[in-house]
UniProtKB/TrEMBL annotation:
<keyword id="KW-0175">Coiled coil</keyword>
<feature type="binding site">
    <location>
        <position position="44"/>
    </location>
    <ligand>
        <name>Zn(2+)</name>
    </ligand>
</feature>
<feature type="binding site">
    <location>
        <position position="103"/>
    </location>
    <ligand>
        <name>Zn(2+)</name>
    </ligand>
</feature>
<dbReference type="GO" id="GO:0015976">
    <property type="term" value="P:carbon utilization"/>
</dbReference>
<feature type="binding site">
    <location>
        <position position="46"/>
    </location>
    <ligand>
        <name>Zn(2+)</name>
    </ligand>
</feature>
<comment type="function">
    <text>Reversible hydration of carbon dioxide.</text>
</comment>
<dbReference type="GO" id="GO:0008270">
    <property type="term" value="F:zinc ion binding"/>
</dbReference>
<dbReference type="InterPro" id="IPR001765">
    <property type="entry name" value="Carbonic_anhydrase"/>
</dbReference>
<dbReference type="GO" id="GO:0004089">
    <property type="term" value="F:carbonate dehydratase activity"/>
</dbReference>
<comment type="similarity">
    <text>Belongs to the beta-class carbonic anhydrase family.</text>
</comment>
<dbReference type="Pfam" id="PF00484">
    <property type="entry name" value="Pro_CA"/>
</dbReference>
<feature type="coiled-coil region">
    <location>
        <begin position="122"/>
        <end position="152"/>
    </location>
</feature>
<keyword id="KW-0456">Lyase</keyword>
<feature type="binding site">
    <location>
        <position position="100"/>
    </location>
    <ligand>
        <name>Zn(2+)</name>
    </ligand>
</feature>
<keyword id="KW-0862">Zinc</keyword>
<keyword id="KW-0479">Metal-binding</keyword>
<dbReference type="InterPro" id="IPR015892">
    <property type="entry name" value="Carbonic_anhydrase_CS"/>
</dbReference>
Amino acid sequence: MCKLDVDKYFANNREWVKTVLGENQDYFQEIKEGQQPKALLLGCSDSRVSPTTVLGTELGELFIHRNIANVVSHSDLNFLSVMQYAVESLEVRDIIVYGHYGCGGIKAAYENKNNGLIDNWLANIKDVIRHYNAELKAIEDEEDRLKRLVELNVLEQIANIKQTSVYRDALDKGLQIRLHAWVFDFSTGIVHDLKKKYNIIPAVH
């Protein structure tokens, strides 16, 4: 088990502040005024897939919610509240579901072993497995099968967003909410846009 190097993080923070202020003396005054994020991003809690690092975003660009395996659960009031605040208060019009290959939550759901409390959460992914069981079984290589399950999970979470009251209310008000399905591959560092890869998700729903 790695020990947390607290001094390292505080030193990094101070160095970052120095660098930022060297480029823009008003930076912190500007972000203090409020946030206007360009998108809501639902990502996985995995420590290797930090969206701000991978996508090179600045503070204030992304409104981010993370959970195990980037799941949209209709009983998860935490995410639904985040989504409502993003759409209704921050006027966000783009929502990204950001999965990643090599996801431990996806693998645990696929292996279907007893993992304790987390199995209740993984049931959301097991539903995806049941829904696409024939397609997944047709893939001979297990690694390829798990990669496809990661993609299918992202696409299913897009479908789940469409069923939320927040999304449907936004459409009723004439708002255009653009949904994006992305998958990060930490073996290459590349983020894949599933819409372009499979040409199956229109840009605007």
